[in-house]
Amino acid sequence: MASLESYRISALVQKIYVITLTLVLSCSGCQFRYILHAASHQYHLIHDSVKVEEALKGDLIESDHRTRLRLVATIKEFGEKELGLKRTQNYQAIYLESDQPTIYILSASPKDRLARISWWFPIVGDMPYLGFFDLEGVRKEKDRLIKKELDVSIGVADAYSTLGWFEDPVTLNLLARSTVELTEIILHEMTHNTMYIKGQGEFNEGLANLVGKVGALSFMRKTYGDTHPFTIEAENNLMDERLFSSFLASLLEKLDLLYESDISYQEKLVEREKIFTKSLKEFADIQVNFKTDRFKGFGESGLNNAYLMSIGLYNRYSKLFEETMMEDGNSVENMLDHLRKMAGKGSDVLEGMKGLSSLHADSGQ
């Protein structure tokens, strides 16, 4: 008779196989290789994980990581009970391999428009980026897109959500972050499991970004008190988010006006460089007002549309999401209920939020 553990592994293999096969049969050659690459990593990530309780028994992890690992369950419970986030079996296991690969995020945009190149996949729909677990793979894709005269940007991510298809484990790179950052990331990914709309990346990431930051602040206040350094750090993160979002929205508005003008393609490329240069100077001027280093690296490798749109995916509409939450009684749970009703109408939720915000502004509310 097979053991429970061997049955669990067999079920995991079957699940990954079925999902991978479904995706592969719906995709092109390039997507085929990409999906196999991602599925292979996901299998090892889950198969090689151990239960959190087991990891805490021995000397498998160092003391500061151990403290944060114990905290993960408390963060998860807070998200479920206080913020209305979906209950899942995530974060009950941990991947202990120290060579957990970096997740490289690649995005692309036309040089003369603030638009995202997207990649369509079954189940999740259009994705505004691709994720890679090896540097060689992301570089090859970058070179391919550059040959198409596109702006390309490569960033990194600390975590990702499988949107409920698998039980996501904790990874050591998460435990290496600060307590506040860990809380923010966990709540961010939990938001994706709670509400995710196919093909609406800017809405999905903007929502998760707000819930992560606001939720982290609420968690710190409840767990440690208003004057604790963790709470102050979370407050500073939220204040910096507001300042940076305002700066970024202004920059993207200037670029929108340029790209919508009647001048030639080449003229737009020349003029955009002027805007990029001026914006970097403006950012240097406001840096003294930041209370954290969250946005310290902005523009260090130069600006292009893909880079700005990849950041804008998370930060462009922070004010809009926060205003929506305030309209819903300053409650994450109420906001999620409201947004679900909007999504149920089958329209672009972010555009609906903009429309409501305009109505409130016109009415003087």
The low-confidence parts are: 1-32
Order of the strands making up the biggest sheet: 1-2-8
In helices, the fraction of residues equals: 55-70%
Strand content: 5-15%
Main sheet overview: 3 strands, mixed
Tally of structural domains: 1
Order of helices and strands: HHEHHEEEEEHEEHHHHHHHHH
Q: Mean pLDDT, as a whole number?
A: 85
Q: How many E-type strands?
A: 8
Structural class computed from helices and strand pairing:
mainly alpha
Q: How would you explain this protein's 3D organization?
A:
The protein is mainly α. It has one domain (about 50-355). About 60% of the residues lie in helices and about 10% in strands. The chain is built from 14 helices and eight strands. It has helices at about 5-25, 30-45, 50-55, 65-80, 135-145, 170-175, 180-195, 200-225, 230-260, 265-285, 305-315, 320-325, 330-345, 350-360, and strands at about 50, 95, 105-110, 120, 125, 130, 150-155, 170. The strands form three sheets. A three-stranded mixed beta sheet has the order 1-2-8. A hairpin with a 3-residue loop joins β4 (about 120) and β5. The longest helix has about 30 residues, at about 230-260. It is globular, with a radius of gyration of 21 Å. Residues about 1-30 have low confidence and may be disordered.
